Amino acid sequence: MRVGIDVSSVVYGTGVSDYVINLVQHLPSDVLVPFGFSLRRFSELKRLVLKGVTLPFPPTLMHYLWNHLHVINVETFTGPLDIYHSSDWTQGPSRAKKVTTVHDLSPFLYPAETDPQIMAVHTARMKWVVKECDKITCVSNSTAADLQRLFSVPSSKISVIYEALPSKYLSLKPQITKNVNYVLAIGARQGRKNTDRLKAACAKLGQKLIIAGEGSELGYVSDQDLVNYLAGASAFIYPSLYEGFGLPILEAFYYQVPVACSNTSSLPEVGGDAAVYFDPLSVESIATGITQAIKDRDRLIAAGTQQLAKFSWETTAQQTLQVYKSLV
Asked: Would you place residue 213 in the very low, low, confident or very high pLDDT band (cuts 50, 70, 90)?
């Protein structure tokens, strides 16, 4: 079996980047043909993809060739394949059996919050995904249900395979500032991140809140700084209205921080019995959740350690490999 997997996203430092890096690291190397495209970050791509095919093509070109014209087979770059595992950005034509991963469907659920260019890319790609992919792996049951509802994809084509904690966190040791009482959230400009209600809830409690992420007081922070802020927090609060998986919950579990999060989308799947849940549309409910998470700190930390153990890249890779094998 020869599996071509598009790893173009590894240069961006996103959750999808972490997924691709960790999946490739845990799949059998003798069956994989990693390949990727980049122009401005080509040297970085070559450094990250040591054993694979890297080409100095801009993503916009590949979007046009693959998502719009749908020409030039993947095998032109990789040689013959049994399986083609596409990225979340482009869906190229191929003679192989086709697999892709859907991480979340926020562009389609919250189109007003999505950049029009990004929306156009996802729309064009999903047309080919629905038409041509033999299997679609989804990172949560919530995302799988959204895929069926929005695109009428039959359940027989879908496999739910959870993500896990990215390996980069295993080597990041927190440097904690002592005696600072705050709760941490990760936010962005999108309304679905629900930071306005979170701010109102914290103001109601008189609780100091730190938000990291695009458009926040801190803005983007390095992985090390995020770990520092996370490990020093009284609780991690995740008030998002929608997430495809909710990886920061696992990060909080790893650094032994109690979690309070929304009772929506994929978050209860990730948090299990180890998080406090609230209605993200209610400031009062969010405030109650924050209070409960801080109060039940010891119990939640112990439960979080147990919940984290349910997610592993070994399992993710094994289940993904079974999807490949089912098609050949």
From this structure: confident
pLDDT number for residue 178: 65
Least confident span in 15-24, 133-142, 179-188: 179-188
Q: 57: which 2 tokens?
A: 């093509």
Same domain, 224 and 263: yes
- Is the pLDDT at 216 greater than 90? The verdict is no
Q: Do 12 and 43 fall into the same domain?
A: yes
Q: How far apart are CA 11 and CA 18, in angstroms?
A: 10
Residues 97 and 145 in one domain: yes
Q: Which domain holds residue 76?
A: 3-164+312-325
Cα–Cα dist 41/18, whole Å? 17
Same domain, yes or no, for 274 and 318? no
Q: Are 290 and 258 in contact (CB under 8 A)?
A: no
pLDDT of residue 44: 94
Mean pLDDT over the full length of the chain: 95
- Exposed e or buried b for every residue in 207-241, given b needs 16+ CB within 10 A? bebbbbbeebeeeeeeeeebbbbbbbbbbbbbbbb
Is residue 114 helix, strand or coil? coil
Taking only the tens place, the pLDDT of each residue in 149-207 is 999 999 999 999 999 999 999 999 998 776 679 999 998 778 999 999 999 999 999 99
The dihedral region occupied by 214, where left means phi > 0, alpha psi between -120 and 50, and beta the remainder, is: beta
pLDDT at residue number 179: 67
What's the CA gap between 178 and 173, in Å, rounded?
Answer: 15
- Ranges of beta strands (E only) in the chain are 3-6, 32-37, 53-55, 83-86, 97-102, 135-138, 158-160, 183-186, 209-212, 235-238, 259-262, 275-278
Same domain, 290 and 196: yes
Q: Are residues 68 and 177 in the same domain?
A: no
Q: Are residues 146 and 194 in the same domain?
A: no
Q: What is the pLDDT of residue 119?
A: 95
Q: Which residues lie below 8 Å from residue 107, measured CB to CB, with a gap of 6+?
A: 114, 118, 119, 122, 123
Question: What pairing do the DSSP bridges indicate for beta strands 275-278 and 32-37?
Answer: unpaired
Q: Which amino acid is at 260?
A: A
Question: What CATH number is attached to the domain comprising 194?
Answer: 3.40.50.2000
